[in-house]
Amino acid sequence: MRSIRGKFLQLNLISILLCVILIGGLGLWSVSVIQRDSSKEILNLTCRLEGMQLNETLDSIKESVDLFCAMTTNQLPSLESLRDLRFVNEFVKDAEKNMTEIARITHGVCCYYFRVAPELTDYAQGFLYGKRHLTGQMMKEPLTNLSLYDPADTEHVGWYYEPQTVGRSLWMKPYYNRNLGIYMVSYVVPLYRGGVFWGVAGMDIDFDVVIEHVRSTHPYANSYAFLSDDRGMLHYHPELEPGTYMTDISPELVPLVDAFSWETATEDHPVFRYHYKDVGKTMTFFRLNNNMELLLCSANSEIKAPMVALFRVIVMVALLLCSAAVMMIIPIANRITRPLELLTQAAQKIALGDLNVELPHPGNDEVGILSRSFEVTVSSLRQYVENMNDMAFTDPLTHVKNKTAYNRAILALHEDMARGPVKFGLVMFDLNNLKHINDTYGHEHGDEYIINSCRLICHVFKHSPVFRIGGDEFVALLGGSDLDECDTRVAELDAAVEATASADKPWQRLSIAKGTAYSTPGDTAPEDVFVRADRAMYANKRRMKEAAAVK
């Protein structure tokens, strides 16, 4: 017959081995999943945030030029007036003043200009301002003599001829402006009156400013960002020359370049993995408003480094724990029998408030009697605690969850949102006419009104927890099909409430104001959603009162 000590030692050694295998396997799987998801999220989020910051500068330039063009076109009475030297001088002077004021409040401008088509006036008319690198001041520059250059000469006169040729406003690809000696990105707008081209206006951004912003984008120590056009040709790269195509870097980037054709500026893109110089890399991208692509790249080894380090720590801790446990089990097995040890451990857990313990089931000796007595006691305590929990988190009138349960749910949402975006919704309910029913017909009928309203809410939102957070206020925390079909559920509730209008008793005629809100990526706490739902509910309540007053 095997001794209790031997059984105890054997069982614990097997348990330790299974735990090590289970923890190691789960740890390895969890690390790989976390690494994959978090790296994609980090790269996408960083690329998007930096791209949106660049877009703010680009949008400010575009809006400023569009504003100037609208103002200037409205001030021009006719194309024939451009032949009048006195008028055109005053007209250009006013335009110069307007654009200078607009440029002064526009972020990132290094140059701005306006030029009247030479064929419409007897003199070169317009202005050109450029920022001097030494002083940082905008200085007026001599007008470019358009007749000296071929229209295809982008570096000198592309700013004038490209929008005229295309016939619409456009962002020019980065180019070196030889008139000013600046590498820039230009937004230019052709001006038309009655279908006739009469001039060009535009603003430029110093491309070095854009590059400095791109250089500062690196969520990992050795990651880097760069710029290309929508065909995959590089405009800036920390290691490669401009004009290089990404497909020349690696054939594995062909799907990435193909993805540029379906890209939008508001969605997260899949990450793309490739090899360059035998180094595995991961890349994502974001389209800028001037049709350039902002790309963010990081080495796979760097992305995985924190997770690999964490996995090593887990393995080391697991090995240390196993070694310590084995060293402890042997002397304990020599002194204490297994049933008594388990009973002692169970008693300690019970003393700490843990009633979910498993008790041994030995024979009919003294240890067995003690174990069964413990089991009966624990079962009674567990039932008592469950009853107390039900009382603590349940509203005694409606038997739905109470304000305390709601606070716990909000706390859990706080923790979930701290780890990342959470998809959920809130519907706020407020029972109309409760005070009138209480004052007129008594609190007994007021309670019946509350119970009937709560029963109806729970029936409609049967897949979501409902909380009573005030005397006449309820909240439904939406999830699953209730969240996906919220509008349908609200319509069902409205129809059910409307059906009670013909009830005989006033406290049977329900009136419920409601407000719905959903979580968004910009929310930092559940209270953000609660505030929106609360506002929507009070707005609905006001509309219901106004409708009732009209009737």
What does this structure look like?
With 551 residues, the protein is α+β, with helices and mostly antiparallel strands. It has two domains: 1-336, PAS domain (Beta-Lactamase, 2-Layer Sandwich); 403-550, Reverse transcriptase/Diguanylate cyclase domain (Alpha-Beta Plaits, 2-Layer Sandwich), CATH 3.30.70. It contains 15 helices and 16 strands. A hairpin with a 2-residue loop joins strand 10 and strand 11. Helix 1 runs antiparallel to helix 2 (85-104) and helix 11 (434-441) runs antiparallel to helix 12 (443-460). The chain is flat.
Brief descriptors of the model:
single chain; 551 residues; alpha+beta; Beta-Lactamase; Alpha-Beta Plaits; seven-stranded antiparallel β-sheet; 16 strands
